[in-house]
Amino acid sequence: MRLATLKRGGRDGTLVAVDADGTRVAPVTGYPTLQSALDDWDAAQPALRAAVAAASSGERVAADAFAAPLPRAWQWLDGSAFPNHGALMQRAFNHAPIETTLPLMYQGMSHQFISPTDDVPMPSEADGIDFEGEFGIITGDVPMGCPADQALAHIRLIVLINDWSLRAIAPVEMKTGFGWVQAKPACSAAPFAVTPETLGGAWRNGRVCLPLTVEVDGTWFGHPNGAAMEYGFHDLIAHAARSRSLPAGTIIGSGTVSNPEHDTVGSTCLSERRAIEMIAGGTPKTPFLSFGARVTMRAGEGDSPFGVIDQRVVAG
User: Fold this and answer.
1) What whole-number distance in Å separates Cα of residue 90 and Cα of residue 84?
2) Measured between alpha carbons, how far is residue 71 from residues 74, 109, 160, 259 in Å?
């Protein structure tokens, strides 16, 4: 099942099911928004299945008709579940290892997720504009204290995310000990949210076992595989829910997809490539993004099950 949100219909858009080609859609009777379906997921199944069946002969829409699957969400929790990424950053910047056996996670802004083809406004090129390719999940209601071995049952949908970052601001905010605010603007999301069974064998052990391909201005940048997560999404849910419940519509991110074989598979963020350059030669060579730069992300070897993020960075 592939679901999406059209831009029309107000701030939360209009929920639709999407056909196999990603070009035709059908509305979901009784559930005007994705959040309304998430709030009543079990009861919504007949209407969702009916919409999926109708989508192949439904309304034809262009790529720019889609909003993010959840244009605004109750909660956005971003992990850092790929150990290779953290190890490279620690080595390049001579940071002490983080002394914990727990998953790393922070809470970011959730009131806006940028549509997959919209321009992305940023305040200044001097802020060190960077992208981060991630997989994410959208939960149903999760009770406080949910253990990892029960958490997979609470995953409703899987998404592809570009977690935009401002690298010149991040170190300043980290030193305060209060976390990121200015360094983490709104994320972008690919148009289609898919149910776990839609991915077939690519959904294993709470992980999206697909390459995430990134291009910058039409040039390949990387395609590391999501299978390399140290913690699966069930572990991230259990970590987030240790001392609080999670509402339906919570989005949890994997963190930057990163593989040890970066010489051959590349990276999904500029900061990681710059760290690799620093380790090799002492100085980063790859610049951060300038206004007008185009970033494209897709998953899989052929057609991306999540659709494509294809955006330009512009002056805000």
Assistant:
1) 10
2) 10, 12, 14, 30
pLDDT tens, position by position, 14-63: 999 999 999 999 999 999 999 999 999 999 999 999 999 999 999 999 99
For residue 247, pLDDT beyond 80 = yes
pTM here is 0.96
